[in-house]
């Protein structure tokens, strides 16, 4: 099993692209410079391009704030500005797999919160790898833009690492597109965490997984 959190792995650089889509919109929304309004009901490729490109430019300009590592501020931005563009409940539910049905409503709520904290902490650190030459390129769209579930393909180029292939899986909701899974060089985030979650739950139960995630987030 490959770990998205392992240092010095190809995924360490690829996390930048994940960060741009999952929490970069917070910086776009709160930056002093006005950014174009994102249309979640646009063509899925255009939606990802808007979110990614706008966020990447802001991240380049806000490196001082990012490098300060103020997770409280980042969490506040995520709560206010990112949740409209992602479905972290679905991400968590699919990562938990069959164990999700065994969880109580309170455990589900706590697991989503704990997993969200893990993703935010992981991806906020990845922002420090962005430089002025970083660029997100959306590849030609191959799916049906009217479908309810689509994949948008992209590449992230950086001066300090080889280009990385990134796929974003989106679902159509009444409010527009929402991102719920990311593929980094052939490994889907949900599948990767599903293996880790299953091992932890089998050993220590759902509460054990929640506690393990919360300890990692401290």
Structure write-up:
By secondary structure, the protein is of the alpha+beta class. It has one domain (10-217): Tgt2/MlaC (Nuclear Transport Factor 2, Chain: A, Roll), CATH 3.10.450.710. Helices cover 53% and strands 17% of the residues. A five-stranded antiparallel beta sheet has the order 1-2-3-4-5. Helix 5 (71-82) crosses helix 7 (105-126). It is globular.
The amount of beta strand, in percent, is 15-25%
Query: Compute the gyration radius: what is it?
Result: 17 Å
What is the number of independent domains?
1
- First CA to last CA: what distance? 25 Å
Molecular shape: globular
Q: CATH superfamily membership, which one?
A: Tgt2/MlaC
Unreliable stretches:
1-13
- What is the element string, with H for helices and E for strands? HHHHHHHEEEEEH
What is the CATH class name?
Answer: Alpha Beta
Number of separate helices: 8
> Within the CATH hierarchy, at the fold level, what is the topology?
Nuclear Transport Factor 2, Chain: A
What is the topological layout?
Blueprint: H1 10-22, H2 24-30, H3 44-61, H4 63-67, H5 71-82, H6 88-96, H7 105-126, E1 135-138, E2 149-158, E3 161-173, E4 176-184, E5 187-188, H8 189-217
Antiparallel strand pairs: 1-2, 2-3, 3-4, 4-5
Helix pairs in contact: 1-7, 2-3, 2-5, 5-7, 6-7, 6-8, 7-8
